[in-house]
Amino acid sequence: MQPDDLKMTNSFIINTTGVVKRFRTNFALKGLDLKVPKGISGFVGRNGAGKTTTINVLLGLLRANSGEATFFGLDCWRDSYIIKRRLGVMHEVNAYPSSFTGGHFLAHVASIYEISQSKQRIKAVLKDVGLSDAANRSIGTYSAGMLKRLGLAQTLLGDPEFVILDEPTANIDPMGRITMLNHIKKLYKEKGTSFLISTHILSDLEKVCNWLSIVDSGKIVDQGDIKDLAEKYSANTYRIDISNPGLFLEKIHHVECVEKAWIEEGNICCKVQDANVFYNEVLKIATELNLTLKGLQQMHCTIEEIYKATAGANVYEI
Ligand SMILES: Nc1ncnc2c1ncn2[C@@H]1O[C@H](COP(=O)(O)OP(=O)(O)O)[C@@H](O)[C@H]1O
Ligand SMILES: [Mg+2]
Predict the structure, then answer these.
(1) 48 C-beta closer than 6 A to ligand 1
(2) Is 51's C-beta closer than 6 angstroms to any atom of ligand 1?
(3) Shortest CA distance to 306 belongs to which of 235, 256, 242?
């Protein structure tokens, strides 16, 4: 075991404390405490929340104004060269030479990074991402999903232990997204490759992640094991099926024990402090307004619901 690995035992692979990053007068990160363990982790937040800035700080492409950021127990700015050799990164925006075939492009990348036994590696990564059959086709003929998978193949060439994917499923169709995520899951299961997936498409994460870090306005609003988060937010989150939900929402907002209330698929969702007080208030309001209460149940939290309960955002806006 290397000294770095020793330091990593029982701790997080990525660990930032109070990271601040300012662009002139705009604070993109306002004291970010990001913790990411081994496994497949989701890094979620609306557009402009600070995901890409965070990734750039982690990669040593941007220097934080203050705070601490470590990756594998190493300093993200000072040791970025060593860190990057252990990583695969797919940036949010990528451009590929459309006249190259997928195979030629990867051969080109392998030669730049002096990857040994490149032929075998290229064959293996193309298989890993399901592009073996398209290896000899020019990139110009690839679909958006295939381009993202080519990007994933590129990040895997050096056999990294940790892969960062910035918005890997943005702009690709649902089938392409499922294929991409299945490959990620398979890589973790078969090779133990860890992933940090930044995305604003929350439903994608449900299928693959075991850890979630939620960022809003440059700060982590909550993070943890997905099962723990789901339990934490289900414990005091309720779904109400009621006639005229709009009218009911106006009233329930003002009830003291209700922390947050929103409408989802025609139902009211509430995060509350005290379930008993809440039940009584719901019945009182329904009677007062002469509404029909069709159902009231505790929510089993999906990632979307956890996100809404934490960031309080309208999911359709992120
Ligand atoms: N190079 C830059 N110069 C100025 N402002 C930036 C720059 N990069 C990001 N920002 C700002 O920082 C904030 C966070 O952006 P970003 O990290 O790209 O968010 P996300 O990836 O979550 O969409 C936004 O307000 C964005 O406008
Ligand atoms: Mg981004």
Answers:
(1) yes
(2) yes
(3) 235
| Angstrom distance (rounded) from CA 152 to CA 150 | 5
Local confidence band at 316 (pLDDT 50, 70, 90 cut-offs):
very low
Per-residue model confidence (pLDDT) at position 312: 53
Tell me which of 3.40.30.10, 1.10.10.10, 3.40.50.300, 3.30.300.20 is the CATH number of domain 3-224: 3.40.50.300
| Pocket-testing residue among 19, 23, 62, ligand 1, by greatest number of atoms within 8 A of Cβ | 23
Intervals of CATH 3.30.70.100 along the chain? 235-317
- Ligand 2 centre to CA of 92 (Å) is 6
* Ligand 1 pocket residue status of 116, Cβ below 6 Å: no
Ligand 1 atom index nearest CA of 47: 23
The fold for domain 235-317 equals Alpha-Beta Plaits (3.30.70)
- Which of 26, 27, 43 has most ligand 1 atoms within 8 Å of CB, for mutation? 26
Segment 55-92, tens digit of pLDDT: 999 999 999 999 999 999 999 999 999 999 999 999 98
Give the list of residues 6+ apart from residue 245 with CB closer than 8 angstroms, or none.
Answer: 263, 266, 267, 268
In this prediction the pTM is: 0.81
